[in-house]
């Protein structure tokens, strides 16, 4: 009897696949006694204390859900820098890679009632080493669930490309989950997207709404982005900021547009701006409990010790980066928020919003008709 498992892939990078997998596993754990996880091919990885390279998502899921499986089973293949060139040069054996994936999958599924297999990026990712998502799913005998960003036309067109890639390997697409659907478009999407999927005989399994919190960044995200460490406010490392504002103008302009949950980007030479932030903490308003300001100090001139002492005295989360404010702001605008196990609020919010918006009965069904390629 084949193990109960599903392969979750996406139409592209940064679509929210990990967020969806968190909610899916949580929901499945309410329906099955034991739920396992495996990410067959990983790219972004960390080293364990034993020097083992492990996919970042594998660490997240193992730690958060307390999974018993070993890292070698839930993260069997890692693609570090230079791996692709080694593979193409014949220095990496393809059969050994497949064997590691199969061994990990067999070990995980043997000890669980249902297993979630997370892919990497869109369906074609990994093709250069002959391990794209569709091929891996086919080798493991699994259906695929595709995740796409919320929308109608663009989401469908991206899905069409990925569905055709699944056809090539005769992999059945069990369903589609739309992520980050704007509330204003939600009812329209729920009405029309199933009609768009009808020609493939693929159901819409979920329509997950957009969350401002899940799309926001924490100070830990900024630490990683700028490869630096907090100079103050360490206990607020995982506080999220809904907006970032570059403050290069007058003090009056800053005070007139002050917002909550805001990261202020300003040169370390702007004592007046920093002093204004400190004043707000010295003399709290009625809204002080909602005022959560972070500071990103910039420029070649380092912050003075007096400035740092004031910031630390109020435990305000702050960073310093030796670049101009404009360049720092540009980097932040391209930052994609990721999920790590330490960011407990984000993990819990991800699980809550996803779990409430997925049809688990459809997700767990295993008798959908095999897709046939369209002309």
CATH class of the largest domain: Alpha Beta
Q: Count of helices? A: 15
Radius of gyration: 23 Å
Could you tell me the strand content as a percent range? 15-25%
Topology:
Layout lengths: L4 E6 L6 H13 L5 E4 L2 E2 L2 E3 L5 E3 H10 L5 H4 L2 E2 L4 H6 L5 H17 L3 E9 L10 H8 L3 E6 L3 H16 L4 E9 L4 H12 L6 E6 L7 E2 H8 L13 E2 L1 E4 L4 H6 L5 E6 L3 H12 L10 E6 L6 H9 L4 E4 L3 H9 L10 H12 L4 H5 L11
Parallel strand pairs: 1-7, 1-8, 2-7, 3-6, 8-9, 9-10, 13-14, 14-15, 15-16
Antiparallel strand pairs: 4-5, 11-12
Written account of the structure:
The structure is a single chain. The two termini are 34 Å apart. The chain folds into 2 domains: 5-211 and 340-364, Rossmann fold (3-Layer(aba) Sandwich), CATH 3.40.50.300; 217-333, 3-Layer(aba) Sandwich (Udp-n-acetylmuramoylalanyl-d-glutamate--2,6- Diaminopimelate Ligase, Chain: A, domain 1). The strands form 5 sheets. The chain has a 6-stranded parallel beta sheet with strand order 2-7-1-8-9-10, with helices on both faces. Strands 13-14-15-16 form a 4-stranded parallel beta sheet, sandwiched between helices. The chain is built from 15 helices and 16 strands. With 375 residues, the protein is α/β, with parallel strands linked by helices. Helix 1 (17-29) crosses helix 14 (344-355). Helices cover 39% and strands 20% of the residues. Helix 7 (153-168) links the parallel strand 8 and strand 9. The radius of gyration is 23 Å and the shape is globular. Mean pLDDT is 90; it is low at 285-290 and 367-375. The relative contact order is 0.14.
């Amino acid at each position: 009897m084949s193990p109960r498992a599903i392969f979750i892939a996406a139409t592209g990078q940064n679509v929210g696949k990990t967020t969806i997998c968190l909610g899916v596993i949580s929901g499945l754990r309410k329906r099955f006694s034991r739920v396992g996880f495996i990410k067959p091919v990983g790219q972004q990885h960390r080293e364990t204390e034993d020097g083992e390279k492990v996919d970042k998502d594998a660490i997240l899921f193992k730690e958060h859900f307390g999974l018993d499986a070993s890292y070698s089973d839930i993260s069997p293949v890692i693609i570090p820098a230079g791996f692709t060139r080694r593979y193409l040069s014949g220095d990496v054996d393809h059969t050994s890679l497949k064997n590691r994936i199969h061994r990990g999958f067999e070990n995980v599924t043997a000890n669980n009632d249902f297993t979630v297999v997370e892919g990497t990026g869109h369906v074609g990712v990994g093709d250069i080493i002959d391990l794209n998502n569709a091929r891996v799913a086919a080798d493991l005998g699994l259906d695929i669930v595709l995740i796409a960003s919320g929308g109608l036309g663009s989401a469908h067109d991206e899905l069409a490309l990925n569905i055709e890639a699944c056809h090539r390997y005769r992999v059945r697409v069990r369903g589609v989950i739309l992520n980050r659907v704007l509330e204003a478009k939600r009812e329209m999407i729920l009405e029309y997207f199933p009609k768009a999927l009808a020609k493939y005989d693929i159901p819409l399994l979920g329509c997950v709404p957009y969350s401002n919190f899940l799309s926001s960044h924490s100070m830990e995200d900024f630490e990683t982005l700028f490869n630096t460490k907090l100079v103050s406010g360490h206990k607020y490392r995982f506080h999220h900021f809904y907006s970032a504002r570059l403050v290069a103008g007058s003090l009056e302009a800053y005070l007139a547009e002050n917002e909550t949950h805001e990261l202020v980007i300003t040169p370390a030479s702007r004592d007046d701006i920093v002093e204004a932030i400190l004043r707000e903490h010295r003399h709290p308003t009625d809204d002080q409990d909602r005022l959560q300001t972070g500071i990103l100090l910039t420029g070649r001139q380092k912050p003075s010790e007096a400035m740092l002492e004031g910031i630390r005295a109020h435990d305000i989360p702050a960073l310093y980066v030796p670049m101009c404010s404009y360049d720092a702001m540009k980097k932040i605008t391209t930052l994609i928020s990721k999920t790590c196990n330490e960011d407990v609020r984000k993990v819990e919010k991800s699980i809550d919003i996803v779990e409430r918006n997925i049809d688990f009965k459809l997700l767990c069904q295993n008798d959908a008709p095999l897709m046939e390629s369209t002309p």
